[in-house]
Amino acid sequence: MFNNVLLVIQAIAAGIGVYQIVLSFFGWYRRKERITHKPTKSFALIVAAHNEEAVVGALIENLQKMDYPRELFDIFVICDNCTDGTADIVRGYEGVYACERTNPNERGKGFAIEWMLKELWKNPRQYDAIVMFDADNLVATNFLQYMNEDLCNGYRVVQGYLDTKNPHDSWISAANGITYWFCNRLWQLPRFNLKLSNFLGGTGMCFETKLLKEMGWGATSLVEDLEFTVRCIQRGIYPKFNYDARVYDEKPITFRASARQRLRWMQGHFDVSRRYMFPLLWQGIRTGSIVKIDAALYIFNAFIYLIGFLVTLALWFDMMLPGDPNLTSIYSKMPLGLSLTIVLYGYLQCPIAMLMEKVNWRMYLKLLLFPVFFLSWWPIAFYAFFTQNNKTWSHTKHTRVIRLEEVQGKQM
Known about the structure:
alpha/beta, 8-stranded mixed β-sheet
């Protein structure tokens, strides 16, 4: 009986995995984004910062050099519960607004954004769109040109391409970089090519102001980006991925810092999946919306990690017992050629994505330790499942002061 239940669980997880593999083939091609509209849209650039005195200056200087009419955008930095000199540094830049918030009871980026938007609505000047960044980011100078283009073309929510500004710092930051290249090319781009919904990534996000006023922010979970994405999809508003609008994010360089960050993501992901997955799936089935069904499967991924971990443990434990195994792997039920093809392509997806993204050849050496990083998601997912009600925001300390020219120079 237990073996049959285990086989059904494996079949469901394998089916979702095969679906994603098939989807990834549609990321093997891309159409270059074109800019045909002149700059007309005005933007409020919001930077979320908590004790970011080491890195916020580099981002502000970067944003001040955007290749977009300066009168069409303003920069607002949320100095959220800061105990360092972040606000003083921000005030040192002409035309940049330091917006100080102190609320020890509502900590986290989602609450900070909600507060900032309410402050913006009181502002005499109103903007066509809101763009959100993290304080540790760097942004391609043509980013706003692409956002202007997408808004003029009728898109209401846009996600830029998330890259890593420090993939060479350690094997951990390299593993994060590999994950980003894979997700951009074989998760986000296929969905854009197939006219499915894309997913927000926490930074490099652009929102039509009218939409934010209609919906409200309301995303205060540990993964506010995913929560807002789902709320949009429920309303028939599908975020768009702009491959050519680049944002560079700083990644942790130690395993401990990375594990803490990923634990927070997983806790939030379980929380959002538990609250939204089945309603969204049912809505998709009832209305015949492939977009909503795909989104429901996407947010179920936290449970896929958990299932993979528990099933693997069960199979390994069963093999170590004396006598013939009692549990059956789903792969043993498949034709050998099919199972080998699925496993092989699963392993090759990351180097394939790196090849298509034209990543520097030195980064391929980092693939040797990538399986360690990937497998570490399993115990993180297991622990996150039992602590998903923990809503405490864990801050990731950022210290790498890198300029945009350095990042782009290393890419070249």
